[in-house]
Amino acid sequence: MSKNKSSESVKVVVRCRPLSRKEESNGPAGGIVQMDLRLGQVILRNPRAPPSEPQKTFTFDAVYDANSKQRELYDESVRPLIDSVLGGFNGTIFAYGQTGTGKTYTMQGAWLDPERRGVIPNAFDHIFTHISRSQSDKQYLVRASYLEIYREEVRDLLDPNHGNARALELRENPDTGVYVQDLTSCVCKSIKEIEEVMNVGNQARAVGATDMNEHSSRSHALFLITVECSQPGPDGRKHIRVGRLNLVDLAGSERQAKTGVQGERLKEAAKINLSLSALGNVISALADGRSGHVPYRDSKLTRLLQDSLGGNAKTVMVATLGPAPQHYDETLTTLRYANRAKNIQNQPRVNEDPKDALLREFQREIARLRAQLNHRKWRSKQKSEQVEDESWDGDQEKEIEDEEDEEVEKEGEDYMKLEEQRLEREKEAIRGDQDLIPDEKQKLLGEKERMMVDLRKEQEATEQLTAKYKAMESKLLVGGKNIIDHTNEQQKMLEIKRQEIAEQTRKEREIQQQVLIQDEETLELRETFTSLQQEVEAKTKKLKKLYAKLQAIKVEIKDVNDEHVRSRQELEQTQNELTRELKFKYLIIENFIPPEEKNKIMNRLVFDPEEDQWKFQSLVPAESKSSQMKKRPASAVGYKRPISQYARVAIAMGGHSRYRAENIMFLELDMTPPNTASVDCSKDGEPNQSPSVDSSPTKEKGVRKSQSWCHTPKSMTSSPSNVSLAACHTATPAAAQ
Ligand code: ADP
Ligand code: MG
């Protein structure tokens, strides 16, 4: 990638943690990592190689050994980045390394111990201290979000429904780049508030994990801070700069054990490897600079870090190592990875006046509320002048001039009090007035009462407006106030000195590294030989040196080849497992799903590249749905179902009911008397039934006929059964009913 004026490379620092107690007790003595802090070099010893094999040396922007302090790392390698973010750049810090090498320790550390606080709490401190010390014409808005990527799903850690919430989607905006849709973002006014946000997220992360360690070493956590700063420019207008900071704690980079994993676990392993290997591919493609295509879209992680790798952000990578000999391979891989990342070039630029700055919206809303309040103030001023004019005793004098907020509020309150007193007095006067007739008195009192209610309503509205105004305004941090810090001068000086020292060390290291490179190049030029013997000696020495270098590079090539073969084998293994799974699914589909069903499903499926998933097409196109539901077929206007012209005419003529398309039943009340038929027992010659049955024949044999279109009631009334009905009716009137 070509270097241009504004481009800068990704800063890569390496940190090695101390040997753990367990490692000390069971491994052979000593670690395999040595560090040269002055030169920024890591020297790695292969515990399995013969002593003659040269050690591997890597050079980085800075290295931190087991004795390094959190503060040192922050001041030297992170502070400049956070300063850039406060100036409107995008910044990213990510920790990369094997599980248990100190990624979380570096990023978060022990919160309660000031000595062991990691990058994130120190950054909180830094940001809010900077704001409190900046000039008072600057306004800030700080927001925080927290998410994790687990099994290629983005989850909001600040969502109260974290456990059940669906995965969030990534979207792309031409102005701001890739962002997470619907991600919770909390406005933070102090260190305490932003720490609270962090704790809420960490708890959600812990709750979401079935096995805390497993989960946290398999998920990537991203804490995002947006700092918006508005400052009057030379043109007199307020300009807004937006800095976005990504603090990333990646999943453990070790290879997942592949043997025997199936189903869910296989998917999970494949997906973790996907994100990390995609990250590796992106880094390789960028470092290489030759391949035009950078595979950002291969995973969620690389899409989210697109700006940070080869984009417009400033980036710091902290590669963490363990010193134990048993993890030699992993340590070497991490170092190689980090070494490659050094070559990535970014083009950082300040985000000036972006369209989506929230601060601008806040400022507008505050201005609107202020205008509303001022309008109210003006109204109350007008009214209070009127009150003074007609006041009973004109002793209340009030001057409303000041523009300050408290004044606005106070004046409002005063006016309300005054008005209330006036109404009370007027009410008293009405009550005491002997000339008024009681009706009139009541009416006037009612009117005053209504005025009181109105007054109270207005007062409430003003209070609400004021509260809203204050709440909005309190979210904006103004330089030079808001935060307690109020410059402990000594502490400030101390910090500045510390920064200077860090800067000095950094520069020294850079110079040393340059000197080393130049030394090798110019050695040849400076040498003049007095005798042949001397020349032979010098050249032999040089030859030996070059030979050693050649050997080291040969070993390196072999290592790289080995690693390549290993990763290819792993990929092949994963591929085999996935193929097996695919065959299994095919078997089920071919044997248990009818072909036509399969085709129907296949025709409905479409691939969504945004979400990297197959989706079902909806059966009814979304836009035509509503119009379809609203419109009735033309043939059925006014009716529930189609009806012919002939039938319509027939209905109008009162013709046969078969032409009725609707309301087939007659629902008018049936006015005919109940009609029952009874069996003549004596005629039948059957044995007599029990008296109780006999006495209520209608229960068994009687039929009540309702009037309907197919039976004319007249024919029923003329039936002879009517006679017996009368007899039965007199016997058991209740039963007949
Ligand atoms: P990771 O997040 O990479 O899986 P952790 O940050 O959880 O690893 O670290 C594992 C353990 O090592 C923790 O107990 C942590 O306190 C310890 N540790 C890591 N780095 C350091 C360090 N630089 N100094 C002291 N202890 C460390
Ligand atoms: Mg961790």
UniProtKB/TrEMBL annotation:
<dbReference type="GO" id="GO:0003777">
    <property type="term" value="F:microtubule motor activity"/>
</dbReference>
<dbReference type="GO" id="GO:0005524">
    <property type="term" value="F:ATP binding"/>
</dbReference>
<dbReference type="InterPro" id="IPR027640">
    <property type="entry name" value="Kinesin-like_fam"/>
</dbReference>
<dbReference type="InterPro" id="IPR001752">
    <property type="entry name" value="Kinesin_motor_dom"/>
</dbReference>
<keyword id="KW-0493">Microtubule</keyword>
<feature type="compositionally biased region" description="Polar residues">
    <location>
        <begin position="687"/>
        <end position="696"/>
    </location>
</feature>
<keyword id="KW-0547">Nucleotide-binding</keyword>
<feature type="binding site">
    <location>
        <begin position="97"/>
        <end position="104"/>
    </location>
    <ligand>
        <name>ATP</name>
    </ligand>
</feature>
<feature type="region of interest" description="Disordered">
    <location>
        <begin position="375"/>
        <end position="413"/>
    </location>
</feature>
<feature type="region of interest" description="Disordered">
    <location>
        <begin position="676"/>
        <end position="737"/>
    </location>
</feature>
<keyword id="KW-0505">Motor protein</keyword>
<keyword id="KW-0175">Coiled coil</keyword>
<keyword id="KW-0206">Cytoskeleton</keyword>
<feature type="domain" description="Kinesin motor">
    <location>
        <begin position="9"/>
        <end position="344"/>
    </location>
</feature>
<dbReference type="GO" id="GO:0007018">
    <property type="term" value="P:microtubule-based movement"/>
</dbReference>
<feature type="compositionally biased region" description="Acidic residues">
    <location>
        <begin position="387"/>
        <end position="412"/>
    </location>
</feature>
<dbReference type="GO" id="GO:0005874">
    <property type="term" value="C:microtubule"/>
</dbReference>
<dbReference type="GO" id="GO:0060271">
    <property type="term" value="P:cilium assembly"/>
</dbReference>
<protein>
    <recommendedName>
        <fullName>Kinesin-like protein</fullName>
    </recommendedName>
</protein>
<feature type="coiled-coil region">
    <location>
        <begin position="455"/>
        <end position="581"/>
    </location>
</feature>
<feature type="compositionally biased region" description="Low complexity">
    <location>
        <begin position="726"/>
        <end position="737"/>
    </location>
</feature>
<dbReference type="GO" id="GO:0000278">
    <property type="term" value="P:mitotic cell cycle"/>
</dbReference>
<dbReference type="GO" id="GO:0005737">
    <property type="term" value="C:cytoplasm"/>
</dbReference>
<dbReference type="InterPro" id="IPR036961">
    <property type="entry name" value="Kinesin_motor_dom_sf"/>
</dbReference>
<dbReference type="InterPro" id="IPR019821">
    <property type="entry name" value="Kinesin_motor_CS"/>
</dbReference>
<dbReference type="GO" id="GO:0005871">
    <property type="term" value="C:kinesin complex"/>
</dbReference>
<keyword id="KW-0963">Cytoplasm</keyword>
<comment type="similarity">
    <text>Belongs to the TRAFAC class myosin-kinesin ATPase superfamily. Kinesin family.</text>
</comment>
<dbReference type="Pfam" id="PF00225">
    <property type="entry name" value="Kinesin"/>
</dbReference>
<keyword id="KW-0067">ATP-binding</keyword>
<feature type="compositionally biased region" description="Polar residues">
    <location>
        <begin position="705"/>
        <end position="724"/>
    </location>
</feature>
<dbReference type="InterPro" id="IPR027417">
    <property type="entry name" value="P-loop_NTPase"/>
</dbReference>
<dbReference type="GO" id="GO:0008017">
    <property type="term" value="F:microtubule binding"/>
</dbReference>
